[in-house]
Amino acid sequence: MPRLIYDAADETETAALGAQLAKLLPDRCVVALCGTLGAGKTRLVQAIAEAAGVERGRVVSPTFVLMQEYRGRRNLYHFDAYRLRDEDEFLELGPEEYFDGPGVTLIEWADRVENCLPADRLVIRLESTGPTSRRFEISATGEIYQGVVAELCRWNDRR
């Protein structure tokens, strides 16, 4: 199964990854974002959203509202599971409607609600490696998104 390790030296390189993801992610894609506080989950969502035609300043962590919807050239559904008590509380948000909707679903702290996610999803593990540098480990669960990861690997090889 393909897997990409992408080291971003700064926010410009994070933005480049976000732009590439915005190009490659199909509608009905679920992206599980996992990482500690400050790892760059929201910044990556901002980069994807900006590349999809959403003003970056509109994209903030939905920690307190739990879900934000952004409309640009495509719809983005941005969940944050950090403050949820359990998976039942996540399911009460009705995520299945978004998983099946015409857009991309991005879930911060997805490891907290892993059992609620579709079997086929893109998983991005983020790690802070310095003040502005980040490491992204991108993989697919199931077969649907293996092609996305393979395309990201080819893109990264050309950089």
In whole angstroms, the N-to-C terminal distance is 22 Å
Number of strands: 7
Largest sheet: 7 strands, mixed
Question: What fraction, in percent, of the residue positions are helical?
Answer: 25-40%
Under CATH, the homologous superfamily reads P-loop containing nucleotide triphosphate hydrolases
Q: How much β-strand is present in the residues?
A: 25-35%
Q: Round the Cα radius of gyration to an integer and report it.
A: 14 Å
What would you say the CATH architecture is? 3-Layer(aba) Sandwich
SSE-based structural type? alpha/beta
The main sheet orders its strands as 1-7-6-2-5-4-3
Bulk shape: globular
Mean of pLDDT: 93
Overview of this structure, please?
This protein is of the alpha/beta class. The protein contains five helices and seven strands, in the order βαβαββααβββα. A seven-stranded mixed beta sheet has the order 1-7-6-2-5-4-3, with helices on one face. A hairpin with a 5-residue loop joins strand 6 and strand 7. The chain is globular, with a radius of gyration of 14 Å.
Summarize the model shown.
31% of the residues lie in helices and 28% in strands.
Main traits of this protein?
single chain; 159 residues; alpha/beta; Rossmann fold
Question: What is this structure's SSE topology?
Answer:
Layout: E1 3-8, H1 11-24, E2 29-34, H2 41-51, E3 67-71, E4 75-80, H3 87-92, H4 95-99, E5 103-108, E6 121-128, E7 134-141, H5 146-158
Parallel strand pairs: 2-5, 2-6, 4-5
Antiparallel strand pairs: 1-7, 3-4, 6-7
